[in-house]
Automatic annotation (TrEMBL), chains A, B:
Keywords: Hydrolase. Pfam families: Hydrolase. This is Haloacid dehalogenase. The keyword Hydrolase applies. NCBIfam families: HAD-SF-IA-v2, HAD_type_II.
Amino acid sequence: MADGDAHMSSPQAILFDTFGTIVDWRSSLIEELTAFGRERNIVGDWTSLIDAWRSAYAPSMDRVRKGELLWTTLDKLHRATLDRLVMEFGIKGLAQEDLAYLNKGWHRLRPWPDSVKGLTRLKKNFIIGPLSNGNVALLVNMAKHVGLPWDMVFASDLFHHFKPDRENYLGACQLLDLQPKEVMLCAAHNDDLKMARSLGLQTAFIARPTEYGPHQTKDFAADEPWDVIAANVDDLADKLEAVRET
Amino acid sequence: MADGDAHMSSPQAILFDTFGTIVDWRSSLIEELTAFGRERNIVGDWTSLIDAWRSAYAPSMDRVRKGELLWTTLDKLHRATLDRLVMEFGIKGLAQEDLAYLNKGWHRLRPWPDSVKGLTRLKKNFIIGPLSNGNVALLVNMAKHVGLPWDMVFASDLFHHFKPDRENYLGACQLLDLQPKEVMLCAAHNDDLKMARSLGLQTAFIARPTEYGPHQTKDFAADEPWDVIAANVDDLADKLEAVRET
């Protein structure tokens, strides 16, 4: 164990932030959209478009949170942003079906190298699931595409809320019929863990220092003494096995 | 293919009724409660109690459907029924934790012999999930206990409705971002398939003629020409592979 409570008890379930923590969205999308542009001979600054796409993520969810939009899935928020960015970046020649295909790039994100191995190990002893702002279709398609062995998918459209709204964290605990202290959130983002801890969940931090590429400004390390600080998902399995054996 | 539409197109997702279709609730509970009684030297007509427990299933959900009860999970309905039946059957010596343990017998039901093999095959080509009146905790615990390889768990507490309310069938399609015609329900109960078909879903029937033991009165065979009629879940995989290959 790293920092944190020496009297920590083993959780029953471990939930995972997904974009950034489990999958490497930026490299996946850069590779996919760049290849798409090359094959179709469509010129565009795909890398900047992807960074702008992700920059619009939090503001687009905030529009739902503030009530400016009724409940809207992340797939639909992604698509609205993509339509705007394609115009702003002056990218020509994309048909409606191309835009639909590119938007589903978020369903085809690659996991970090340790994710599938670590989750497969953790699944033996714990209930595992994403606790993500993605919608069910996005997260289920992603899991099937790359083999994420979830027991249950805690998508934002189950709650009609986006993290860090408390409804997502507490809603997942309620559906599992577990107390927050019996559930651990694992995330590469300190803010996500801060909310989870404030609601009574256990916390595990994994650094993903290349998530945002050259634009990463935070989350290089744990900001607080989270219950577990692990190098990656596989290392989290090591550390939790050690807790179970004590 | 058996009966039904020769032009049937392959579904994207296959949802399964669970109690009776995937798991053999009656034999599992008889075995478990009988063994419990023997070990604890508690006398009771466990088999009759289990049949009465299941007989109370539909009426208890109807109380929620009619608004006599606010949303209540199946775990809680099961527990209320169990508490009543233990009194009615004059079973003595059960502590609160015993009742909680016995109620969780529904989380430990055994699959029919073909279920895990068939689901594992189907998972390669289709999104698979239960569409059940069980709650998330019950269905996730059951899946982990016996290895049901669900991609997503469409439990009744995601919808705050019980089948055959349309909200469960259509809600699952919506969460998957699929049209009803892209989704198949597989069930051992003609009534469940009737509602699914009326809402546009594809249908697959599997007979489970021993589900209710000597008390079974219906569902020995398909009442209508469902899209697929299969001997069991493994045979359903055979038949759907044949469709995909045409």
